[in-house]
Specification:
alpha/beta; 8-stranded parallel β-barrel; 5-stranded parallel sheet; about 20% strand
Length: about 700
């Protein structure tokens, strides 16, 4: 007799209108950078999710009409019947594993500048679009509204023809026309679609009803709704009209998909929302107001937390975007009692950056994400070894850990040598900084699996020089020796060392992470890196009672974090901690007791007092070991070393995600085809006859 699992509840089927989800794991709609341009890559990625056990797998937002396109963002499209074959690739890949396929139909309204179609944007009331484009949306008249309903109906019929099981109406993230009609700040109409709440939700009611009438016999109709915008009286909120909206529409859709808005709140990074299930306090009321199933998100990775959501009546289905990206096989691992093998999301939003940069999705924890079709990578499978030769990996940071893990999975005999007393490298060091605790998961996941592998040996406190490596005589050597932050100010803005380095105590991120902090006083953090680290270090220094100023030559603070949806939150956090923010200023000279700053747009200079300076600029690859070995090929040959390769930051410093990716790439390609041949397949658009 089988032993009952505490997680059996998660594998119960759930009826959704005319269809049934095979379990409670629900991959909610999420963007991915494949969209209408890369349908084969999109289908392979979604298919892997279904293979991994997600009972429902949804698309990204899918544009229904050229009056609502958000190029250059690469989202889905179902403008006309020509789009159906690409969507059929997706539904076939999902159905092949017994999962339901969902499509999120969207008309973006104010959010769509229509840069490709060049059609005037449309909105409830005339207003500038919410991008920086110098154009305005026109107010929709009643003919536009009738067309809007018709476009949804036709898109739903195409979705059904493409094989989708669940069709969405979308009113979330402040990105959809249906939500704009609900919001008093965007809807100043005086007709039957404006004014009272009943009038402002009229279009939503009509669209959901139109979709149900068109496809409801065989497709479930879902409604994605942001129940709180976290804007107080300015926006929809649980304490305001959102609760009434749920009450008025409670039984109309077959499924409620609920979250918070905007996107930066819904997909908040772990730095600002560290707790699993952080949206429950906003969304839990919905289930008490409808008999229809409810799905919600909260960066769920713990099966105990998932079961708790169901048992306490917060949710019927466990929604996930980022956890399904970090581990597409999360449901299967829970089912098979392999909890320790779950690749937990770290909440860094590298996945989101791919969509914001209009390139295929990527993930810090899961380097195969986005590579399922173009490289043929699988998150749980990798090709077997082609020899019984042993491999030495030097360095136990993100790249070294991933390389060793995948080589071990392939069946190679692997020795991993780490010079310090702990594995993890920069992921471990950064995890000790404010808000970055989850970064330790990069180490924890890989270390746990490596220690369970019979063919892998790990040696800590084992720094190796060139002589030691030659003496060991491993046939194959991977160097993952990381990088070191520069101490001279060289970086993007300054291509030579700063003048006057001897006038102030100089610190780098390596010093801060090692616990070597300036004495309390006026400390300037100079950020020429533009990602998260300078802001986190500024927080750390405030905790150490320093008076902190953050200076950057960029147009704004932590500029690149705009792509990870953190920038506004970072600036707010720093201001709350009384960090002085100075943008568009470069350090022209370090003075005794201060700095001379130069405006990046003029010749104006100014002097600022400072007792210490933290330079967050560029990193030097720790490639001395590689240079020492590679410049003496005859000694390598005599030692029996057949191959030598640098990976991760010691090859080219980058993000943790990049280091993990390069480690994985090296393991995948080891003893395979030549490097150029092993790059990736290109997805080409076939030319057809002119319409």
């Amino acid at each position: 007799m089988s032993v009952k699992s505490p997680y059996d509840l998660l594998f119960e089927p759930v009826r959704i209108g005319p269809v049934t989800a095979p379990n409670r794991f629900y991959q909610v709609p999420h963007c991915n950078g494949f969209g209408h341009l890369r349908p084969r890559g999109l289908a392979a990625m979604r298919g892997i999710k279904a293979e991994g056990g997600w009972g429902v797998v949804c698309t990204e937002e899918v544009e229904i009409h050229p009056t609502s396109e958000i190029s250059p963002a690469v989202e889905g499209r179902i403008w006309d019947d020509q789009d159906i074959p690409a969507h059929r690739l997706v539904t076939d890949a999902i159905h092949a594993h017994g999962s339901l396929a969902g499509i999120e139909l969207v008309h973006n309204g104010l959010h769509a500048p229509n840069r490709i179609s060049r059609l005037p944007p449309m909105a409830p009331s005339a207003a500038p679009v919410d991008s920086s484009d110098p154009i305005q949306a026109r107010a929709m008249d009643l003919t536009d509204i009738r067309n809007f309903r018709r476009w949804h109906r036709h898109a739903a019929l195409r979705a059904k023809a493409a094989g989708y099981d669940i069709v969405y109406a979308y009113a979330g993230h402040n990105m959809a026309t249906l939500m704009h009609f609900m919001q008093p700040r965007h809807n100043q109409r005086s007709d039957e679609y404006g004014g009272s709440l009943e009038n402002r939700i009229r279009l939503t009611r009509e669209v959901i009803s139109e979709i149900k009438d068109a496809v409801g016999d065989s497709c479930a109709v879902a409604f994605r709704f942001a129940v709180d915008e976290l804007l107080g009286e300015e926006g929809l909120s649980v304490d305001g009209e959102a609760r009434d909206i749920v009450g008025l529409l409670a039984e109309l859709p077959d499924l409620w998909d609920v979250n918070i808005s905007g996107w930066s709140n819904d997909s908040a990074t772990a730095r600002f929302e560290p707790n699993e299930g952080y949206q429950e306090s906003y969304t839990a009321f919905v289930k008490s107001m409808t008999s229809k199933p409810v799905v919600g998100v909260g960066r769920f990775t713990s099966p105990d937390a998932m079961v708790s959501q169901i048992r306490r009546g917060a949710l019927d289905l466990i929604g996930a975007a980022r956890p399904s990206i970090a581990d597409p096989f999360l449901p299967s691992k829970i089912r098979d009692d392999r909890i320790e093998a779950i690749r937990e999301c770290i909440g860094c939003n590298i996945c989101v950056s791919g969509d914001n940069l209009n390139v295929p999705i990527r993930c810090t924890q899961n380097p195969t994400m986005g590579e399922e079709w173009r490289r043929g990578w699988h998150p749980e499978k990798i090709g077997p070894s082609v020899s019984d030769e042993a491999v030495l990996v030097v360095g136990g940071g993100p790249a070294g850990l991933e390389c060793a893990l995948q080589l071990g999975k392939r069946g190679y005999r692997v020795t991993l040598a780490e010079g310090s007393s702990a594995l993890g490298g920069r992921s471990l060091r950064e995890s000790r900084l404010p808000g970055l605790k989850s970064y330790a998961r990069v180490k924890d996941y890989r270390e746990g699996l490596l220690k369970s592998m019979a063919g892998v040996e790990i040696y800590l406190e084992s720094p190796l020089d060139a002589d030691a490596i030659r003496e060991f005589g491993f046939p194959h050597v991977f160097l993952a020796t990381g990088a070191t932050w520069r101490r001279d100010g060289t970086g993007r803005q300054n291509h030579r060392p700063l003048a006057g380095l001897n006038h102030l105590p100089i610190f780098t991120p390596d010093d801060i992470m090692a616990g070597n902090l300036p004495n309390a006083g006026k400390v300037t953090v100079f950020d020429d890196d533009h990602y998260y680290l300078a802001g986190v270090i500024a927080e750390k220094l405030v905790e150490a009672d320093c008076d902190v100023t953050l200076v950057t030559p960029a147009q704004t603070v932590s500029a690149w974090t705009d792509f990870t949806l953190e920038q506004d939150k970072i600036i707010t956090r720093l201001l709350e901690k009384n960090v002085e923010l100075t943008v568009r200023r470069n350090i022209s000279e370090i003075l005794p007791g201060g700095l001379r700053l130069a405006c990046t747009h003029s010749n104006h200079t100014e002097e600022r007092a400072a007792d210490a300076l933290v330079l967050v600029t560029a990193r030097d690859a720790n490639d001395a070991l590689h240079r020492s070995l590679s410049t003496q090929p005859e000694q390598l040959s005599e030692a029996g070393i057949q191959s030598l390769q640098s990976i991760g930051d010691c090859l080219a410093p980058g993000t943790i995600a990049n280091a993990v990716y390069l480690g994985h790439l090296a393991a995948q390609n080891f003893q395979g085809d030549d490097w150029d041949a092993a790059l990736f397949r290109r997805e080409m658009t076939a030319l057809s006859r002119e319409a």
